[in-house]
Design goal:
single chain; 326 residues; mainly alpha; MetI-like fold; MetI-like; transmembrane; transmembrane helix; Peptide ABC transporter permease
Length: 326
């Protein structure tokens, strides 16, 4: 119980620091949302101060000193009301995030879990069958695939499977004639459009899970308790999974917590290449448009997701390895 409360206190302190940093960072960027809006809307000479003030009021740009803006921002965080987006005016930030969030969760969340599960199992197999083809094949293939950047793999798949062979759509989350809703036709259309982005992320990420688990597993297989279990005549699968893999998975579990928390941030480059309307695509447009409310909401969402995922992993660490509770 003390271990969990200590981790909870650290989580709350880190969350406050992240929220404060989230408020400061956008304001360190050069320019202002008003300047960005004027650059888009007006190309006919200088703009008067009255016009600037009117545009700022229409966008809801916070006024007052920095402390007043910080207090207003904390109130927005508590009430989950981040105002109107400057880039996608007059849509609200909550509406935009609510539209993009499910696509990123479904795409990246499922792919991250699948990549972790498959990569970890292949790493266990490679370590247990080391110096055989069952070791060489997954490690070499995973290493080769992980050397390619996200965007390069995405472009290759997009060109060959999208433009050349016409097997999959090249952009968007669903077809132009589809009607969004919880229907079988719409869900299958969304899954069909998500194939190329999902395969891109799976190919470029699974190698890290394989190599990480294999190396940790090989170190664990040399420990005395594994040798003792083998000497007692236990089955190889039992020794590998219940004894060696349970302890070797802890470093991979830490990486999985970071990856799972980072799911909300989306893979910005992949979503840009495929025009996939997820959180990463929305964040890119928010940064380009100096959209403070949208940036702050997205950064906060990403930060909280990472913190929550790491908090859960810390608690799971205590369950899997009681030594960490000391």
């Amino acid at each position: 119980m003390t271990y969990a409360l200590r981790k909870l206190g650290l989580f709350v302190l880190t969350l406050w620091a992240a929220v404060t940093l989230n408020f400061i960072l956008p304001r360190l960027m050069p320019g202002s949302p008003t300047d960005a809006a004027i650059a888009k809307l007006s190309q006919n000479g200088p703009v008067t101060q009255a016009t600037r003030d009117a545009i700022a009021a229409q966008l809801g740009v916070p006024g007052g000193n920095l402390w007043d803006q910080y207090v207003h921002y904390l109130h927005q965080v508590v009430t989950f009301d981040f105002g109107v987006s400057y880039t996608f005016y007059p849509q609200s930030v909550s509406e935009l995030v609510g539209q993009a969030f499910p696509y990123t969760i479904v795409l990246l969340g499922i792919v991250t879990i699948v990549a972790f599960a498959v990569g970890t199992l292949l790493g266990v197999l490679a370590a247990w069958k080391r110096n055989t083809w069952l070791d060489s094949l997954p490690t070499l293939t995973g290493t080769f695939a992980s050397t390619f950047p996200y965007f390069w793999t995405a472009l290759l798949l997009l060109f060959f499977l999208g433009y050349v062979l016409h097997w999959f759509p090249t952009s968007g989350a669903y077809g132009p004639t589809a009607t969004p809703g919880f229907t079988w036709d719409f869900m299958t259309d969304v899954a069909y459009h998500a194939v190329l982005p999902a395969v891109t992320i799976l190919i470029t990420s699974i190698g890290g899970w394989i190599l990480g688990m294999r190396n940790a597993m090989i170190n664990t297989l040399g420990d005395d308790y594994v040798t003792f279990a083998e000497a007692n005549g236990l089955k190889g699968r039992t020794v590998a999974m219940k004894y060696a893999a349970r302890n070797a998975i802890l470093p991979n579990l830490t990486g999985f917590g970071l990856a799972l928390g980072g799911v909300v941030g989306g893979s910005i480059l992949v979503e840009q290449v495929f025009g996939y309307p997820g959180i990463g695509f929305l964040l890119f447009n928010a940064v380009i448009g100096q959209d403070y409310p949208l940036m702050q909401a997205l950064f906060l969402l990403i930060t909280v997701s990472v913190l929550v995922a790491n908090f859960l992993v810390d608690i799971l660490y205590g369950v899997l390895d009681p030594r960490t509770r000391r």
